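Researcher: Structure for this, please.
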Amino acid sequence: PKGSPTQLVGDFYKAYMNVEAMDAASIKPIQSDLDAIEALETLDDLTRFAADQAAMSGPALFAIFAPSADPADSKRYAIFSVGPSFGVEDHHLELLRNKEGDPRIPAYRAYVAEIMKVAGYPEDDAARIADITLRIETALYAGILTPEEGNDPRNRYSKLGYEDVQAQVPEFDLDLYLETVGFEKPDAVYMFEPRALPELSK
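Model: Predicted structure, C-alpha cell format:
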C-alpha cells in the first residue's frame, strides 16, 4: 500500500539502483560542490568549506569538530576532535599504514584514477591526482590510532584545552570553523584522534 514501509523501502531501493539515471546525471548533482572547491583560495576559505561540509554531515575534510554525548555526563554534549575521512572503505583503511608492497595499494590508486577519468580528467592527469591522493591520505593516516590503540578508551577520551587544541594545528582557524558550523567555543575538546591534528599540521 502507498506509504507503507514496503513501498517506501522499495522506492528508495529502485531510486538507488537506477544506474541509467545516475549515469545520465553525471557529476551535475555535485557540480556546486566542485565549483566551491575550485573557488577556494585561502586557508580560511578551506576552513569554511570544511565546516560547511561538517554541518551537512558531509565528509570530514582533514579534520572535523563535532558534538557528541559527554562521557563524563551523558546529559550534556561536548565537542570532539575527530580525524579526516578517507576515500577507501573503512574496513580497508589499514592499507594506508602498510608499505608499498601491499597489493591493495595499486588497486586503490587505480580506483582513484578511474574516478578522475569518469570526472573528465585526461589519463595522465587522473594518474597524477591518484598519486597525490595516496600520498596525502597515507600521510594523514599516520596520525590515526591503530585498531589496537583505538580499542583503549583512554586513547579516545582525553581532553585538551581549547587553546592547546588550536596550537596543535595553527593553520586551521578553529574559531572560524566553529562560527561557520554554528557551535559555541568550548573550554576543552575530547581528542578522539589525539595524533590527527599534529599530523595534519605537518
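Researcher: Any notable elements?
Model: The chain has a mean pLDDT of 91. DSSP finds eleven helices and four strands in the chain.
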